[in-house]
Amino acid sequence: MDWSLRELRFFVTAAEAGSFTDAAAQLYVSQAAVSRTIAGLEKTVGDRLLRRVPRGCELTITGQQVLPHARRVLSEAERFTEFLTSRHGVLRLGYAWAALGRHTARLQRDWAQRHDAIGLELVRHNSPTAGLAEGLCDVAIVRRPVDEKRFDSLVVGLERRLVAFASDDPQWSRRRRLSMAEIADRTVIIDPRVGTTSSRLWNGADHSPQFIESTDVDSWLDAIAAGRGVGTTAEATAHHHLRPGVTYRPIKDGPRIPVRLAWWHDHHPNGLGDLVDAITQLYAMA
């Protein structure tokens, strides 16, 4: 069945105006064009949609059935047009667990002041590429390497590694700093899909911790608050996810975590260069 948005628009306009003449005036076409276009739609439908009356036109029974569907299609088409129009005016920045920690609000405020034509929208998605592979964002904040065959990436900053543990932990509750060796004596909760913690952190050590897996940052925090284990994470997590019952402390010998921006090889979105510069400067000033 072959119909067009033009036909639907002419039909809906005539139905709402109650007149082919008034519809033609609203559409800036001739009355003959309105009649001809609606006749084409009626041929596709296989029935009359509008009947002429002395005062103009009115819906037939079939027309009454078709009209709400035609309105919905036109509404969706309008939203699609708006998306296509605004697509280059928004830079979507994805992240999984945490965006940029204490730099996040500053980035958003500075960006809004300096960029009138490109908005910055943060998108949270718990996947290894923070929504980039899924098409949910244009650029992603990641803290582990990405597939170099598909994506370009650039390190824009480094963050301290923290340990998270239950606030009522009898051994650690009053500690200001901890070590990787002390963490190795505990059960460590990890998110193997997007997290930055794995057994590789203890390569060359006397021993490594036992691991249990979580599915996202909320289940990770819940397990830690319940005392099921501890976790190591980037400093940004502590800023984004303060949780009653969970305490964060620096790891004195914990390796720094690179913060990367990643994007598709074949897609350099508008504003990418400015975004790289802005985030790099924020981390450099820290």
UniProtKB/TrEMBL annotation:
Family from the record: Belongs to the LysR transcriptional regulatory family.
Superkingdom, natural source: Bacteria
Positions of the HTH lysR-type domain: 1-60
Alphabetical keyword list: DNA-binding, Transcription, Transcription regulation
Record-given protein name: LysR family transcriptional regulator
Keyword Transcription regulation among UniProt keywords: yes
Matches recorded under Pfam families: HTH_1, LysR_substrate
